[in-house]
Amino acid sequence: MAMSSTKRALITGITGQDGSYLAEFLLGLGYEVIGMVRRSSTVNFERIAHIQDELTLASGDLLDEGSMIGVIAEHRPHEVYNLAAQSFVQTSFGQPVLTGDVTALGVTRLLEAIRVVDPDIRFYQASSSEMFGKVVEVPQTELTPFYPRSPYGVAKLYGHWITVNYRESYDLFATSGILFNHESPRRGLEFVTRKVSHGVAQIKLGRATELRLGNLDAQRDWGFAGDYVEAMWKMLQLDEPGDFVVSTGETHAVRELVEVAFSRVGLDWEQYVKVDEKFYRPAEVDLLIGNPERARSVIGWEPKTSFTDLVHMMVDADLEQLSRAEHRSR
Ligand code: NAP
Ligand code: G4F
């Protein structure tokens, strides 16, 4: 294919929450954006439908090395953002081998494709605060030792270290963003923030009478996904690759999330929330709180959205979406 001077980025996981925000962000900067999508029996492009005409979609799967070599050889991106993963912690307990294959070994397959086709490509790996697991230090930094508590966390740790290893072994520009939980109205319904915002909207509209949740004591450092994708891009613009914690520096319990979400619509959460052990995990991550100082000083990144604004944004969006659907069906 003919090459222009426009910067090209390949995003794996473009159909996911972060992929859609990152694609919007890069298009806004004038990038040509190639999104790798895997085959599914029904099309699941809801999150990118509004920008689909501006994207190039390429077929590939993290389980299939040849498909990634093909995508990279055909589109010759300057930057590759590896956002694809089996990303739900609870599922990783039920499907540990699949999680390892996609979320861990998938990273090696992609790095190998880059090494073979074009080692000048800049690579971003979506690492996770789940790697800190049973935390040995509070708050967590780039130097905090890891102690993952789920097959997902273990798989992400492999992905993190293979990224470091390819940086050191082959001199690839391979960077790892250790991102703490980040959420949005585009978050999957199975994650606790969206489960709560969607549940609150359903109760407010009279479509549900209760919300069943697991461990209300777990604490997370929650930020807005739209803010976090900017940090990914900034990391790839540096002179040297590295590892960066991206977080807000604040932590909140699930109970607090629930209180803020219900009070947004004038309801008392204690009348609706039921604790259900079905949603407990075999091993829990009790407390996450990141120190984003290195991201602040080296890449000039800061979170812009507060916890309360984030929860309000998500509840408002679910209320609006469900009300619109209700009107359409009348
Ligand atoms: P997400 O919404 O679950 O999106 C995951 C994406 O991965 C989807 O596009 C999915 O495609 C794709 N995918 C899954 N298996 C694949 C495979 N075998 N081959 C190719 N693509 C595959 O996740 P997210 O919240 O946007 O997170 C993005 C990345 O950041 C993930 O790697 C996640 O583990 C990591 N991370 C997320 C957070 C967070 O709080 N959101 C924090 C730290 C790290 P389909 O649409 O076809 O399923
Ligand atoms: O929303 P969660 O499922 O997110 P979790 O496990 O923290 O993982 C997310 O963040 C990671 C970054 O640290 C990412 F790497 C990962 O891909 C994903 O995006 O659960 C948050 C907390 C947990 O402690 C969980 O036990 O909420 C607790 N929780 C309580 N009730 C619940 C529920 N979680 C879910 N999903 N559903 C519940 O009913």
Overview of the structural elements:
The chain has 2 domains: 8-183 and 223-246, Rossmann fold (3-Layer(aba) Sandwich); 192-220 and 251-286 and 305-328, Alpha-Beta Complex (UDP-galactose 4-epimerase, domain 1). The strands form 4 sheets. Strands 3-2-1-4-5-6-11 form a 7-stranded parallel β-sheet, with helices on both faces. The chain has helices at residues 17-28, 65-75, 89-94, 96-117, 151-170, 192-204, 225-236, 254-264, 293-299, 307-329, and strands spanning 8-12, 32-37, 56-59, 79-82, 122-128, 173-179, 182-183, 211-213, 219-220, 223-224, 243-246, 252-253, 273-275. Helices cover 42% and strands 15% of the residues. With 330 residues, the protein is of the alpha/beta class. The structure holds NADP nicotinamide-adenine-dinucleotide phosphate and ligand G4F. NADP nicotinamide-adenine-dinucleotide phosphate binds at residues 12-13, 15-19, 38, 40, 44, 61-63, 83-87, 102, 126, 128, 179, 181-182, 188.
Quick synopsis:
Helix content is 42%, strand content 15%.
Strand content: 15-25%
- Overall pLDDT: 97
Major sheet: order of its strands?
A: 3-2-1-4-5-6-11
Any idea what the radius of gyration is?
A: 20 Å
CATH class of the largest domain: Alpha Beta
CATH architecture name of the largest domain? 3-Layer(aba) Sandwich
Q: Do you know the CATH topology of the largest domain?
A: Rossmann fold
Count of extended strands? 13
- Enumerate the distinct ligands: NADP nicotinamide-adenine-dinucleotide phosphate, ligand G4F
N to C succession of SSEs: EHEEHEHHEHEEHEEEHEEHEHH
Give the N-to-C terminal Cα separation. 50 Å
